[in-house]
Specification:
The chain has ten helices and twelve strands. It is an alpha+beta fold.
Length: 340
Amino acid sequence: MEHKYDAAVPAAVAEGVTVEAPARLHMGFLDLNGGIGRRFGSLGLTLEEPRTRITVWPTQAVSAHGPSCVRAAGCARTVLRNLRAGSGVHVEIEEAIPEHAGLGAGTQLSLAVGTALARLFGVERDLAETASMLERGARSGIGIGAFGQGGFLVDGGRGPDTRVPPIISRMAFPAHWRVLLIFDQRSKGVHGNAEKAAFRNLPPFPAEQAAHLCRLALMRVLPALAESNLDDFGRAIAEIQQIVGDHFAAAQGGRFASPDVAAVLEWLRAQGIVGVGQSSWGPTGFAVIESEIEAQRLLRAARTRWGANGPLRFKVCRARNRGSEVRVGGGPSGLDRTRN
């Protein structure tokens, strides 16, 4: 029989641990060819909203309540087995990133549960170790980087011995820029077994295109961020989106998964917004906009054009230049202390 240690919870956190985890945009892969020994690599941006927020406290059995509660309970069981804990936990999900929308819901919830349980039981855990245990970061490290650091991120893809894709660049996103999100409530992005099959069936990706994507990332996207040059940043992101979206078109029904989102992105381009695209498998679309005033103007115009009762929803949000937040000591009744 496997030995179980005494799972006494440290007094400082006995009443509970709360973790707030941010959504992320996955803005495109860099090398789907893999001919030089590493594959994937990707660009992404951490968002203030939507977010996942959970509170965990010790109980006799494992339970969870709220959106995505089945996934949360499964993650908790995996972590408890790994910790050899002799007790259970309750996971209360107060907010959750929409699932299968391209915003990293699964990774953020998994890492939030893993981080909360490690803190609850007083165990020091490397974030990469937690991600690997919960089978996150199979192709992209952007969600893990968003949880740990925030900001605009580039990951280095997977090599032969990679545990999780490493973050090789992290930059602060200009505070005055805004992101307009476009949600299609009738559609879900490719996920699960369908996603695995899609990657298996993708055609070979030309090495020349992979080289061009990497050049765009290094010589246009990152310098444009450093200089707060939205036009150059947006045009480079849009070109990456076009190349990658066309490669995935057969698997998702076109350059963008949702025809309705695609129509909004085309309309935004006609309004002079160049930095548009789809996050991951979608269907969520995004547009990077110069200011809060301009973002709110476009938000009002989009809502007027597409109506309040249709399948599309719109949201203006800020980038988040920090990672997740952990608060300890409040349990189900509130929070009383913050640790970053």
